[in-house]
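// run 5 | inverse folding | seed 20
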C-alpha cells in the first residue's frame, strides 16, 4: 500500500514539473521580437500578446555624461505618437520622459496613452554606452503588431535637457522612421544582440534631404498639396477679390463664377487623390485634425457653391448673398490654416519657413480685401441707382408712367390711322350702351 502511494506521488510530481516546463515553454514561444539600428542608435522591441505590451530597449553610443536626447515613438508620424524621450543629466543618470504631440508641435508630458513602465534597474549610462529600458502597454485602439509595425525616431545631440522628466527640449536635428517585424518569434539566445534585427533606422533629417524617397505615397501627397495650395491661395482669393473690386468696374459675376468653378475642380481633384491613396495603403480615413477639417471644408465648399448660384438667380437683393460672402471668407481662412496644419504632418518635415510664407501671403490677401471695402459705399449707391432705373423701366413697360407723382402726364392715346394733321377729328358713332344710357338720362322724370 505504501509503495502504491509513493508511486502516485511520484507521478503527480512528474506531471506538475511537466506542466511547469510546458507553461514556461509556451510563455517563451508567445513572445515576438525585432530590432533596428543606425550608426549610433538601436531599438529592440519584444512584444507580449498575453500581456499586450511592448518591452522596449533603446541604446545609444557614448554616455556617462550628457549626450543630447534620443526618442522613439509608435506609429508612422509624430501626430499622436506614443513617444519615449531619453537623455543623460549632468550627474550621469538616465532620464526617461513619456510624451506625445499634435501635429509637429513640441511633445508634451500631457499624454492620452497608457502610462509606460520605466525599467530603471535595466537602464544605465557609462563610457561604453547608454541604455533606456521601459514597456508600453497597448490599448484596444492600438493597431495589432504585424510584419511591418511602424515606429519613428528623432534626436538632437546638441540639446541637453535638465534632470526633470518635464524639462523642455529643443527641436530635433535628425529624425526618421523604421518598421519592425513583430511576428518573428523571440530568440532568447540573441536577445542581447540588437544588431541581429531585420530593421534599420531610416534618416529623414534636413541634413539628408537627398535620401528622401519619391515613392507613390509621397508623389500623391505632393500632388494633393499642389492642387490645394493653387486652389486656396490663388484661385479662391482671386475670385473673392474679383467680387470685391469688380462690382463697380466691369461685369464681374461671370468672371467670379468661372474662377470659383476652377477652384472647386482643383479642390475636388486634390480631395479624391488623397482619399484614394489612403484607401490603397490600407490607412484609416480622416484620423487627424487636418483630415477632419479638410472633409468639413470640402462639404462647406459644395454648399457654398450652391448658395452662390441661388443667390444670384435674381437681380433683386437677396439676404443669401451676405451669408454667401461671410461663409466664403470664413471657409477660406479655415482652409489656409488647415494647409499649414497639413505641412506639419508630412513625414518629409517641411521647413518652418514654408508655413510662414503661406501665412504672409494670406495676410497680404486679407489686406487687399480690407482695402476693397473702401468701395462699398460707391457699390451701394450704384446698386440703388440700378434698382431705381429697373423699377422705372418696369413701370413704363406696364403703361404706368403717367401715374408717377411729380411727373407730367403723358398721353397714351393713339390717333386713328386715317386721321390727318389739321383735319377735324373723326366723328364716330357712340356705342349702343352709351346711347341707351344717354336717352334714359335725358328722359323726363329721370333728372335729378
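// decoded
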Amino acid at each position: 500500500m505504501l509503495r502504491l502511494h509513493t508511486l502516485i506521488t511520484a507521478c503527480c510530481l512528474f506531471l506538475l514539473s511537466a506542466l511547469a516546463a510546458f507553461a514556461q515553454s509556451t510563455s517563451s514561444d508567445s513572445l515576438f521580437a525585432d530590432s533596428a539600428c543606425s550608426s549610433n542608435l538601436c531599438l529592440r522591441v519584444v512584444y507580449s500578446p498575453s500581456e499586450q505590451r511592448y518591452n522596449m530597449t533603446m541604446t545609444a553610443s557614448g554616455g556617462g555624461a550628457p549626450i543630447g536626447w534620443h526618442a522613439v515613438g509608435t506609429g508612422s508620424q509624430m501626430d499622436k505618437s506614443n513617444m519615449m524621450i531619453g537623455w543623460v543629466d549632468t550627474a550621469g543618470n538616465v532620464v526617461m520622459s513619456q510624451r506625445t504631440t499634435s501635429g509637429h508641435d513640441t511633445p508634451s508630458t500631457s499624454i492620452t496613452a497608457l502610462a509606460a513602465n520605466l525599467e530603471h534597474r535595466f537602464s544605465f549610462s557609462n563610457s561604453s554606452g547608454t541604455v533606456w529600458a521601459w514597456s508600453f502597454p497597448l490599448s484596444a485602439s492600438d493597431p495589432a503588431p504585424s510584419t511591418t509595425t511602424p515606429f519613428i525616431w528623432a534626436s538632437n545631440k546638441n540639446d541637453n535637457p535638465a534632470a526633470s522628466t518635464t524639462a523642455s527640449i529643443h527641436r530635433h536635428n535628425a529624425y526618421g522612421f523604421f518598421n519592425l517585424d513583430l511576428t518573428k518569434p523571440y530568440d532568447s539566445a540573441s536577445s542581447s544582440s540588437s544588431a541581429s534585427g531585420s530593421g534599420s533606422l531610416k534618416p529623414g533629417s534636413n541634413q539628408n534631404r537627398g535620401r528622401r524617397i519619391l515613392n507613390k505615397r509621397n508623389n500623391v501627397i505632393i500632388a494633393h498639396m499642389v492642387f490645394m495650395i493653387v486652389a486656396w491661395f490663388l484661385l479662391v482669393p482671386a475670385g473673392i477679390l474679383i467680387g470685391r473690386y469688380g462690382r463697380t468696374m466691369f461685369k464681374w459675376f461671370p468672371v467670379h463664377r468661372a474662377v470659383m468653378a476652377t477652384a472647386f475642380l482643383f479642390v475636388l481633384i486634390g480631395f479624391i487623390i488623397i482619399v484614394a491613396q489612403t484607401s490603397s495603403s490600407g490607412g484609416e480615413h480622416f484620423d487627424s485634425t487636418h483630415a477632419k477639417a479638410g472633409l468639413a471644408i470640402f462639404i462647406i465648399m459644395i454648399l457654398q457653391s450652391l448658395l452662390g448660384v441661388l443667390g444670384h438667380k435674381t437681380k433683386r437683393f437677396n439676404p443669401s448673398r451676405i451669408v454667401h460672402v461671410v461663409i466664403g471668407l470664413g471657409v477660406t481662412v479655415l482652409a489656409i490654416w488647415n494647409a499649414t496644419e497639413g505641412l506639419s504632418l508630412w513625414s518629409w518635415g517641411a521647413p518652418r519657413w514654408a508655413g510662414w510664407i503661406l501665412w504672409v501671403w494670406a495676410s497680404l490677401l486679407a489686406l487687399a480685401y480690407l482695402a476693397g471695402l473702401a468701395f462699398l459705399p460707391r457699390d451701394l449707391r450704384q446698386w440703388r441707382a440700378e434698382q431705381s432705373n429697373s423699377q422705372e423701366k418696369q413701370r413704363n413697360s406696364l403703361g404706368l408712367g403717367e401715374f408717377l407723382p411729380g411727373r407730367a402726364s403723358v398721353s397714351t392715346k393713339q390717333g386713328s390711322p386715317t386721321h390727318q394733321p389739321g383735319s377735324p377729328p373723326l366723328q364716330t358713332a357712340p356705342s349702343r350702351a352709351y346711347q341707351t344710357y344717354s336717352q334714359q338720362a335725358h328722359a323726363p322724370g329721370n333728372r335729378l
